[in-house]
Amino acid sequence: xxQSERQTSIYSPPFYSSPNGYKMRARLYFNGDGNARRTxxxxxxxxxxxxxxxxxxxxFNYKVTFCLYDQTSxxxxxxxxxxxxxKSSSFQRPQSDMNIASGIxxxxxxxxxxxxxxxxxRDDTMFIKIMVDFEDLHKTLLSYALSLNPGLPMHIQxxxxxxxxxRRSQLRSDELIxxxxxxxxxxxxxxxxxxxxxxxxxxxxxxxxxxxxxxNGWSGYSAALSSGQYVGLNKDGQMLSMIINAAxxxxxxxMIVASAWNDNLILEITGKRGGSVFKSKRLTLQLQxxxxxxxxxDLEIVNFSSYGGEPNSDxxxxxxxxxxDNLCVEFSK
Length: 333
Fold this sequence. Notes:
Blueprint: E1 10-11, E2 15-16, E3 23-29, E4 40-48, E5 63-68, E6 78-82, E7 102-109, H1 110-114, E8 128-133, H2 142-147, H3 154-169, E9 176-177, E10 190-191, E11 199-202, E12 204-208, H4 209-216, H5 220-224, E13 230-234, E14 240-244, E15 250-259, E16 262-263, E17 265-273, E18 276-285, E19 290-299, E20 301-307, E21 310-311, E22 322-331
Antiparallel strand pairs: 1-3, 2-3, 3-4, 4-7, 5-6, 5-8, 9-22, 10-12, 11-14, 12-13, 13-22, 14-20, 15-19, 15-22, 16-21, 17-18, 17-20
């Protein structure tokens, strides 16, 4: 029906953010809307007029996150977020039954869900979660929050998120590589200095995100930023390596990563010790942050190789660069 345009969109049932909260629903265009028509699935958020509105804050200005669930054990969910434009009528107090829908026109390339055996549709059913972030949840916790069993009561999920946030806050700062303490770092992209955070770096640069946005606009570099103003990236799309400097080893624990320019960028990560591959992982990256947990112990070298993908039409550049931040490691004693 969507392809023939007999029915271009469907609405979810209305739901509330809390018993006395905002009333809302989702609107889904399977075959895309506007400039995303016939190329992407479009997903939008709609505020609905309710009896609670007189006591609520408007304009609505809370971050909204959509999650399309991967229904296999791989759990490669599609996650994207947007922050409301508070000047838009979509986020003012509703004066009619519903406000105009607003959200993410290019939520997912149609080719992903048109592939036979894709993990997002099973038995003609897909599951989409909408999360309204009232507490300004740090993006490093977003993937964790959306990986929780959706069948758990909401207060249990919130307690688990809080516990995870406390656990991560206990990480020693010298184990968290943020690229924000590089001596003499300025506006321009430069090579990571050898010895930074105890590693020799190969084909590794750092970037000032504020300056890059002024010059090139928003990109996946901005999406990867988790703290401060700087991220790491692979120079010119080449294989990036981090090599322990001293005669010891380290544990690669976790990182935040995003594709800079290309949708569906492939990133292969290998951990080596004694000259042999010890661990490996293959990821498909989008222009949105992913928190990746490794816990690979006793490493001497980690290589990051990226390739493939298709240029995202919403950004200026193209290529196989990726960006990463809050790289967490633990050195052997």
